[in-house]
Amino acid sequence: MWCIATGHTAGIGCVASVRLQNMSNCSPPKGALHLGAQTEKAYNIHVNGVLHCRVRYSQLLGLHEQIKKEYGSNVVPAFPPKKIFTLTPAEVEQRREQLEKYMQAVRQDPLLGANEMFNGFLRKAQQETQQIPTEEVSLDICLSNGQKVTVNILTSDQTEDVLDAVATKLDLPDDLVGYFSLFLIREGADGGLTFVRKLQEFELPYVSITSLRNSEFHILLRKSYWDMAYDGDVMDNRVGLNLLYAQAVSDVERGWILVNKEQHRQLKSLQEKGSKKEFIHLGQTLKYYGYIKFDPCITDFPEKGCQVIVSAGSNELNFHVKLPSEQMKEGSFKVTRMRCWRVTSSQVPIANGTTNLCSASKCEVKLELSFEYLMSKERLQWVTITSQQAIMMSICLQSMVDELMVKKSGGSIKKMLRKRHNGSIHRSDSQQAVKAPPLLDSPDPNREQIVKLSTKLSSVSLRGISASNSANDISGNDFHGNYAFEGIGDDDL
Q1: With the C-alpha atoms ordered 118, 123, 129, 134, is the resulting torsion angle positive or negative?
Q2: Which helix (H) or strand (E) holds 65?
Q3: pLDDT in tens, 45-61
C-alpha cells in the first residue's frame, strides 16, 4: 500500500508514504529531466518513515505505459495526465494525491501488485536512490536463538534471492523454504524485539537494512504460516525442526508464550534432554504459541485511550487491555469476522511543548490500524489501534486471510507459501459460519461507529470502488476487503 504522509488516507499491506520534493533540493537521479527553468519534481516514496526511493513523474509514466501495454487499459488504473504548462501549487498537490491513489490501486491489485515489472522498477529505484552499486557483499541474518547466518549475496538481490541463500546455507530443503520469511526487526537495549515489517518483493534486503544506518535493526528468519498443523511438514526435516524449536524456545523465554510453573518445568526438562519435537508438541498446547507479540500501544476499544498489548496468531488479534480504571481485560478478534480493515498514516508534531505546525524535521508519522468487526449478528463496529507496528499487523491479517482461503479452496499451502510473490493465491468467496470466543464487553453501549445491518453480509471486493476518505464509509478503495469474512449464524449467538 502506498499512502500519503501529510494527509489521512489508507490502504493495505506494506505502507509507504509518498512525499513531493523539489529535485533542486536533492541529488537528482541520473538523467534528471529539466523543464525550462524549472526542475522536474521528484516524489519520495517512504516505507515506515524511511526513504525507499525517489522517482520522477516521467519515470512513473513510463512504468504505467509498460504495464498498460502488457495488461491493457481495462486492467490498469488511470494515470494522472501530463500538463503542458507549469503546475500551480494546487495542481502539484493534486497530482501527488492522484499518483498516490494510482500506486495504491496497482499495489492492491493481486495481478498488478505481483507483477515483476512493477516490483523490479521499485527495486531499481531503491538501489539508485540509495546510491549503492551492485557488488558482492556479506549479509547477516538472525535466527530465533540469537545465532547469525552470514550469506554472500549481491546488493541487488531481492528478498526471495536472500531467503534462498539463507536456506542454502542452512541446508533447508527447497520445498520448505516457503514456510519461512524474512522480517525486519529492531532490538531494544533490553533485548526486546520489535517487528517492523515483513520484507517485501519490491525491496532489496541489503539496501533496506543498510539505508537505516542503525545497528539496532536486523533481519530475522521466522516461520511465515499461522496454522500449527503445518509444523508437522517442517519438523520432518532436521533443519526445519531446529528452526521451529529455536523459535519456540525464544518465544517462551520472551514471555510471548504463556506458561505456568509446571509447564515451565516440563519444558525445561525436555530442553535439557534435547527432546525438540516433544518440546514443540507441548508448546502447541500453550496459549499464544506461534503468535507475534507487538509493543504496547493504544486502542479505542472498549474505551478510547486504552493501553493494549496486541498479539497476532491463530487467525485472530488478541487484546490484553488496561482500562482507564486500571482494570485488565482480555479478548480476541477473529479475522473471519473482520469485514475490512485499513492502515492510515498522518503527520503529527513531535511532542516538545510547542504548538508549531509540522515541518519535515519536526513531525513524526502516526500509524493506525482500523478494522470493522462483526460484534453480533446485525452489528458492525470499528476498532482502531494506534501503533507504529500497524503495518506489520495489517500484513499479519492479510497472510491469515490468504492462508484461510487457500485451505478452503483445497489448494496447496506449500504452493501458496512458495509462490506468494507470483500472485498465485486463489481467493474464493465461499463462506462458512465459524464460532469466535467472547469479546471484551464495551461499557459504553452508545459508542460511536456502530453500523446496523439489514441485509445479509458478504465479502468486499476492492476493485472498481471509488475512493473515500471517510472513516465510516467502507466503500473506499483505501480499505482492504476481507475475502475470508463470514457471517454469524444463530448458533453462534
Answers
A1: negative
A2: helix 57-71
A3: 877 667 889 999 999 99
